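Before going further, it is useful to explain how the protein records used in this thesis are read. An example of such a record is reproduced below.

***
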Amino acid sequence: MLVVLGFLVGTLGTLIGAGGGFVLVPVLLILYPLESPESITSVSLAVVFFNALSGSVAYAKMRRIDYRLGWLLALATVPGAIAGALTTDLIPRQVFNAIFGILILLLSFYLILHRERRERRNSPSSSERKGHITRTLVEKDGTIHHFSYNLKAGLSLSVVVGYASTLLGIGGGIIHVPILARIMDFPVHIATATSHFILAIMAFAGTIVHIARQTFSASAVNQTLLLGLGVLVGAQVGAWLSGRLRGEWIIRSLAFALALVGFRILWMTLRG
């Protein structure tokens, strides 16, 4: 069952560039109601790393990753990721669930209400905006992407993303994709691929902290290995599917998945 779950998480997570932690955490909360938040997040974060690593390899072959920005944002998330891993055990289970559910719903509503600003991204003046860096990426199939972004804003937001995502065990892709695609005006396919690359580095840093703190029990290790086996395969399928869907449909799928998970977690929290 865990291998199948890992496959589904890997497919969906890589398709939308979110790693899959936002799906895995609530499922683990349901399957293991007596486990502590620290145990749940440590398993989820390790599985997210395997997913992001496999997905990044697939996206690298498609030449969709902006490595320059990816490394910078990934380094910015590391301090926050370490701090998040160190403070997970300080949060009571019900508070943890409430924070997670509210964050997920807010992201869903933002994606639904905020339309993609194509005219701004593709306009000639977009490359001349003050403080913005202009980039051009060419995919393996010849698709050309022209875009610009504010690096300072991205670095500042990434520090917060690193802390919040590792604290909740969701990896951060589910936060980074909206930031890249909506706030920083990245093409959606480049946003999902670059987010996955960032996610691999950030999840690895958080997982190392959990290992150092010995938060992995014997059962947690078994869960991680079985889920990891599934996501390694699922991530390849998700990357393949991403090339066959329009960017806006990927964002809509992300928003819908977020809403379902958010409502489910808050409902569980209210039931006590």
Observations:
- Residues 2-271 form one domain.
- The radius of gyration is 17 Å.
